[in-house]
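Support request from a user on the community tier.

User writes: "When I paste my C-alpha cells into the form, the page sometimes reloads and wipes my input. The last time it worked, I copied everything first. Here is what I submitted, just in case something in the input itself triggers the reload:"
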C-alpha cells in the first residue's frame, strides 16, 4: 500500500502483525504492535526537523530545530529567513533568536539545512508561522470632559495609535485634586471610548488619569503611559424656601422662589 508523503520528512509508524482465524477466515487476530520512526527520502539537502518556537516574548522570537541526518548529506549549517522582519542569517547552531521585533506581530520563518557556509549549499525550507506577544499600547489622546454637573461628568477620548495587541481596555482613576485621594477607579472595555463619571461631589476639583492596556499571554497587564485632565464639578444651587439672616439690631428674611427674590420683610 502506497501513500504520498512529504519528502525528507520524519514520521512515526505503527506495525501490527496479524493472522486469519482458521475457523473464520474473515476474522483477523492481531499481535502486539511495534512503533517505528521512519524518514522519507528525497532529492537535495534535507530540511531541519522539529522546528518550533520557544517562550513568547514581546520583541523576540526564539527558534530551535533538530539536525537532519541522512547518509548522503552532512548538514552542518542553517539559513534562517523572516522576510517580514527583514531578517536573514546563516548559522551553524540549531537555535537562534530574532530580536528587535514589534509586539503582537505574526510572521513566517523559513529554516533551510545547508552542507556548507553559503546559501548555494542549502536545500528546501522548513516553514513555521510565529508571533510576538502583546505589549503596552501607546497612550489614549484627545481627552475631554463634557456635560459636567454637580455630581457627574462625561469623559471621552480617542484610542491609541499604536495598539501592540488587541487593546484589552482602559484603566480610569479619578482623584480629588487637592488631596490626590483616590475617588474612583474603573476599568473600561477596550472597544469603548467614553465613560460617565458619577457620584461626584458638587464644587469639587478632580483630576482624571487614564491609561490603555493589553493583557499578554501570561495574563500580565501591560499599561501605557498616562494622560490626565482636571475639572471642577458645578457648585450647589440655592435651594427653594426661606433663608433668615440676623444682622445687628435688624432682622429680615428673604423668601426665595425658584431663585428669584420676591419679598423683603423688616
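"...and here is what came back when it finally went through:"
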Amino acid at each position: 500500500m502506497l501513500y504520498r508523503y512529504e519528502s525528507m520528512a520524519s514520521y512515526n509508524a505503527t506495525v501490527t502483525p496479524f493472522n486469519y482465524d482458521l475457523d473464520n477466515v474473515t476474522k483477523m487476530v492481531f499481535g502486539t504492535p511495534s512503533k517505528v520512526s521512519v524518514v522519507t527520502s528525497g532529492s537535495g539537502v534535507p530540511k531541519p526537523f522539529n522546528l518550533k518556537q520557544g517562550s513568547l516574548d514581546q520583541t523576540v522570537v526564539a527558534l530551535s530545530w533538530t539536525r537532519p541526518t541522512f547518509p548522503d548529506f552532512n548538514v552542518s549549517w542553517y539559513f534562517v529567513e523572516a522576510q517580514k522582519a527583514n531578517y536573514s542569517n546563516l548559522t551553524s547552531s540549531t537555535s537562534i533568536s530574532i530580536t528587535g521585533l514589534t509586539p503582537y506581530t505574526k510572521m513566517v520563518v523559513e529554516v533551510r539545512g545547508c552542507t556548507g557556509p553559503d546559501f548555494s549549499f542549502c536545500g528546501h525550507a522548513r516553514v513555521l508561522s510565529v508571533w510576538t506577544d502583546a505589549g503596552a499600547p501607546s497612550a489614549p489622546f484627545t481627552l475631554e470632559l463634557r456635560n459636567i454637573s454637580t455630581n457627574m461628568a462625561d469623559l471621552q477620548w480617542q484610542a491609541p495609535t499604536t495598539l501592540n495587541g488587541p487593546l484589552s481596555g482602559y484603566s480610569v482613576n479619578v482623584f480629588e485634586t487637592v488631596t490626590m485621594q483616590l475617588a474612583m477607579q474603573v476599568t473600561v472595555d477596550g472597544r469603548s471610548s467614553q465613560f460617565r463619571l458619577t457620584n461626584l461631589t458638587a464644587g469639587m476639583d478632580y483630576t482624571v488619569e487614564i491609561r490603555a492596556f493589553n493583557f499578554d499571554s501570561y495574563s500580565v497587564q501591560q499599561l501605557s503611559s498616562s494622560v490626565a485632565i482636571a475639572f471642577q464639578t458645578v457648585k450647589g444651587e440655592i435651594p427653594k424656601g426661606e433663608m433668615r439672616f440676623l444682622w445687628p439690631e435688624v432682622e429680615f428674611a428673604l423668601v426665595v422662589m425658584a431663585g428669584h427674590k420676591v419679598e423683603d420683610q423688616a
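Agent notes: The reload is a front-end session timeout and is unrelated to the input. The chain has no helices and 22 strands. Residues 141-233 form a domain with the Immunoglobulin-like fold (CATH 2.60.40.10). Escalated to web team.
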